[in-house]
Write a structure and sequence with these properties.
CATH architecture of the largest domain: 3-Layer(bba) Sandwich
CATH topology of the largest domain: FAD/NAD(P)-binding domain
Strand order of the largest sheet: 10-11-12-13-9-14
CATH superfamily of the largest domain: FAD/NAD(P)-binding domain
Strand content: 15-25%
Number of strands: 16
Order of helices and strands: EHEEHHEEHEEHEEEEHHEEHEEHEHHH
Shape: globular
Number of domains: 2
C-alpha cells in the first residue's frame, strides 16, 4: 500500500534536491530538518541548504569534472544550481555564491511548494515503513547515527572536516595585495597575497609550531581530502603548500610581472565584497593561533576575522556494502540515501545524489521502474563507484574524469580528452533526460 507522503530526512543540499525533485514529479513530501531546533557543530542558521565549508561551488569550465557535473545537473533541473545562479558572486571561472541569500532562497522555494511540508524536528530513529530518503549529511546526529548503524549492521566510517576562516575585506592592506585569477581565467576577481621566500618560510614554521585543537581518536588519514587543515599539509614538507593552495604559478604581479615565491588567494564570500576567505585554508588551529599565524601573511597584518576556522566530525555509511546505483538500500526497497552520508565529496556531488534519490523515490511511489544514470555521465559513474561491492577499501569520492569509462580513441592531450569526455557526457545526459526527466 502506497504511503501518503515520501519522507525526506535532512534539509541540506541533497535533501532539498530530493524533496524538490519528488514534488516536481507530483509526489507529496514531508521534509524533516532538525535545525534550528537542534544545532550542529558547523551550521550557523536554520536555513535549508546552508553551505558550511565554503561559498564556492567550484569550476564551471566544461574541461573540468566540476563543470561537466554542473551541466548534467542543470539538465536534470537542479534546484541548487537554479538558486546559485541567482545569488552568485564574482569568482573567476568558478561558481561562488552569497551563502546568506542562497539559504534564504532555497528555504523560500522549498517551503512554498504546495506539495512540500517542511517540519522542524529531530528524527532519532528510521521510520519502520514508508518510502524514505535519508539525507542527514556528514553532521548526522549521534542518536540517528546509532539507528543507521543498527540498520547497516556495521560501524560507521568517518573522517574529519575543517572550515576556513572569513575575513573582513576592509581590514586588508590592499597596498600589498593584487587582483587576478590563476592563468587569467575569469575576470580576475581573486585577491592575491604574495610571499617571498623569507616570508613563506616564516609562515611555514609558524604553522608547524601552532597549537591545534586535539580531537579524540583522530586518524589524520581520514580527513576530507578537499578540506585538509593547512597545518596538517604543512607537516608533509616545506614545499607542500607551495605546490598546493599557495601555488604561485599563473599569478604574476600585474606591475612587475614577477611570479612570487608563494601566494595566498582570497575569494569573496558575498555579493557586496565585504567578506573574503583564504582559498584552501581550512584549519583546526586554536582561535588565538589562527589570528596570530594568518596575520603573518602580507596584507593580512591587521585582518579582522569575522569567523574563525572550526573542525567537526563527518559521518558516512559504507555504501558499497548496502546501496545500489539507484541509491536504494539493498535490504529495504523503500529506503534511499543521498548526499555526503553516502560517501560522496563536495557540495555538487551531494546535491546530484539528492536528485538521483529523489527521482528514484518518486518512481517507486508512482509504481515505475527505478533508473540508473549512464556510466558515461559523472553522476552515473559516481553512483556506480559508491555502490560497487568490489570497492572493499571505501573512501569518500568526488566527481572526477577518472571515474568515467575511457574514450574509444586514446587522446594524449588532456584538455582535448576532457573536452570529449564532457561532450560524451552531454549526449548521454540529454538522452537520459528526454527519457526519464522532461
Amino acid at each position: 500500500m502506497k504511503s501518503d507522503k515520501v519522507m525526506v530526512i535532512g534539509g541540506g543540499l541533497a535533501g532539498c534536491e530530493a524533496a524538490f525533485k519528488l514534488a516536481s514529479m507530483g509526489v507529496p513530501v514531508e521534509l524533516v530538518e532538525m535545525r534550528p531546533l537542534k544545532k550542529t557543530a558547523a551550521h550557523k542558521t536554520g536555513y535549508l541548504g546552508e553551505l558550511v565549508c565554503s561559498n564556492s561551488l567550484k569550476s564551471e569550465e566544461i574541461t573540468t569534472a566540476q563543470g561537466v557535473l554542473k551541466q548534467e545537473m542543470r539538465k536534470l533541473n537542479s534546484l541548487i544550481l537554479r538558486v546559485a545562479d541567482q545569488c552568485r558572486v564574482p569568482a573567476g571561472s568558478a561558481l561562488a555564491v552569497d551563502r546568506e541569500i542562497m539559504g534564504q532562497l532555497i528555504t523560500e522555494i522549498v517551503s512554498s511548494h504546495p506539495l512540500v511540508d517542511v517540519v522542524v524536528r529531530e528524527i532519532k530513529t528510521l521510520p519502520e515503513s514508508g518510502i524514505t530518503v535519508v539525507a542527514t549529511g556528514p553532521l548526522t546526529s549521534e542518536t540517528f547515527s546509532v539507528s543507521l548503524a543498527s540498520l547497516t549492521g556495521e560501524q560507521h566510517l568517518y573522517f574529519f572536516d575543517a572550515v576556513a576562516p572569513i575575513i573582513a575585506a576592509d581590514s586588508l592592506d590592499m597596498n600589498k595585495i593584487y587582483q587576478g585569477s590563476r592563468y587569467g581565467k575569469g575576470d580576475g576577481h581573486y585577491l592575491n597575497c604574495p610571499l617571498n621566500q623569507e616570508e613563506y618560510e616564516l609562515f611555514h614554521e609558524a604553522l608547524l609550531m601552532a597549537d591545534s585543537i586535539p580531537i579524540a581518536d583522530i586518524d589524520e588519514g581520514l580527513y576530507f581530502s578537499a578540506c585538509t587543515p593547512i597545518e596538517v599539509m604543512a607537516r608533509k614538507g616545506r614545499d607542500t603548500l607551495r605546490f598546493g593552495p599557495m601555488r604561485p604559478v599563473g599569478l604574476p604581479h600585474p606591475q612587475t610581472g614577477e611570479v612570487p615565491y608563494a601566494v595566498v588567494q582570497l575569494r569573496y564570500e558575498n555579493r557586496e565584497g565585504t567578506m573574503v576567505s583564504p582559498v584552501g585554508f581550512q584549519t583546526r588551529m586554536r582561535w588565538g593561533e589562527q589570528e596570530r599565524v594568518l596575520r603573518l601573511i602580507p596584507g593580512l597584518e591587521k585582518a579582522e576575522f569575522l569567523r574563525l576556522g572550526v573542525m567537526h566530525r563527518n559521518t558516512y555509511i559504507n555504501s558499497p556494502r548496502v546501496l545500489d546505483a539507484t541509491l536504494q538500500y539493498r535490504g529495504r526497497p523503500d529506503l534511499f540515501f543521498a548526499g555526503q552520508l553516502t560517501g560522496v565529496e563536495g557540495y555538487m556531488e551531494s546535491a546530484a545524489t539528492g536528485i538521483v534519490a529523489g527521482l528514484n523515490a518518486a518512481r517507486r511511489y508512482l509504481g515505475k521502474d527505478l533508473v540508473v544514470l549512464p556510466a558515461e555521465t559523472l553522476i552515473g559513474s559516481l553512483c556506480r563507484f559508491i555502490s560497487d561491492p568490489q570497492n572493499s577499501n571505501f573512501q569518500p569520492m568526488n566527481a572526477n574524469f577518472g571515474l568515467l569509462p575511457p574514450l574509444a580513441n586514446r587522446i594524449r592531450n588532456k584538455r582535448e580528452r576532457y573536452m570529449q569526455l564532457g561532450e560524451r557526457s552531454q549526449r548521454q545526459i540529454n538522452e537520459f533526460s528526454e527519457a526519464f526527466v522532461n
